[in-house]
Amino acid sequence: MRIIFLILLVAVASSEAAVAQNNSINELRQIFDYDQKSPLDVKEVGLKDSNGIRIHDINYASPKFGRVTAYLVEPSAKGKYAGIVFGHWGYGNRTEFLAEAILYARAGAVSLLIDDPGVRPAPWRRNEPADKPEAVRDNYAATVIDLRRGIDLLQARSDVDSNRIAYVGHSSGAQWGAILSAIDKRVKAAVLMGGIPTEATILLESDDPEFVDLRKNTPREQPDKYFKTIAVMDAINYVPYAAPTPLLFQFARYERYFNEAAMLKYARAASEPKIVKWYDTGHDLNDLEALIDRAKWLQTQIGIRPVLPILEKKLSTSK
């Protein structure tokens, strides 16, 4: 989850809930509107082949801010494949899921992995400070719109089955996935890894020493404008409206940034169908069992092939 170091860590956790209640889901959906007919203008700047899997370094036009840098990972063989869009965590970039996308390419999927605005290269980088909450909110909304454009990109490909497109997101990427599940029904399944119900959850309730110190050293009279502004982007506003899109929640039992109560609140708010899984790991969720569970669930939801034979083959050849 993106960590904001500057201001506004006062006891205002209730204010963001009040803001959310004043916005219907139909009003919230309008935040993420864009012209779906506008040109994608996809440009390739690099191509690598990884044992029959093609990794394209591309960028495409953002409806909001400049261009979106991304990797497109595809099988080299012709076919009709599932599609997967990935969203990275706040400290990451498009490389976070690259190895997983290569694995899924071998299992029959074309994947798109985008950079969010805060980590794109100049001149397309937009990393706004917390004392500009409207700009932070607009960056968040632009990220979701850029992911929707990513779905447009996959749907425009003749080798992708438009009825088999899923989303996988981690931490802040899970926040975008919660929104996508409610506003874009082209997403047939969504994996939400290490997500939380509201941004205030991590900033106000975290036991992480960084946040404890930050709260201790921040004057209590600081304004609550940030949370009031950003609340429209909170995941808990959207997951109740995901249906009929199925959700897979993946949580860490040794989570660093937020507590079990927050994770349970998030999952309980979500519509059915949903599955909630827990792992003996930290926020990174770098657990092989978590990967296998995701892959098995995506196999069920969008029809990729089993990944275990692929992993077993790789292990046998690496000896």
In short:
By secondary structure, this protein is an alpha/beta fold. It has helices at 13-21, 25-29, 98-106, 133-155, 172-183, 199-205, 209-216, 225-230, 260-269, 288-302, 308-317, and strands at 43-50, 53-61, 67-75, 81-87, 109-114, 160-170, 189-193, 247-252, 274-279.
Describe the overall structure.
Residues 1-21 have low confidence and may be disordered. The chain contains 11 helices and 9 strands. It is of the alpha/beta class.
Query: Mean of residue pLDDT?
Result: 90
Structural class: alpha/beta
* Major sheet: 9 strands, mixed
Q: How many helical stretches?
A: 11
Low-confidence segments, given as residue ranges, are 1-21
Multimer state: single chain
Task: List the strand order in the largest sheet.
Answer: 1-2-3-5-4-6-7-8-9
Q: What's the alpha carbon Rg, rounded to whole Å?
A: 19 Å
Instruction: Characterize the overall form.
Output: globular
Percent of residues in beta strands?
15-25%
Report how far apart the termini are. Answer: 37 Å
The portion of residues assigned to helices is 25-40%
How many runs of DSSP E, i.e. beta strands? 9
Give the SSE string.
Answer: HHEEEEHEHEHEHHHEHEHH
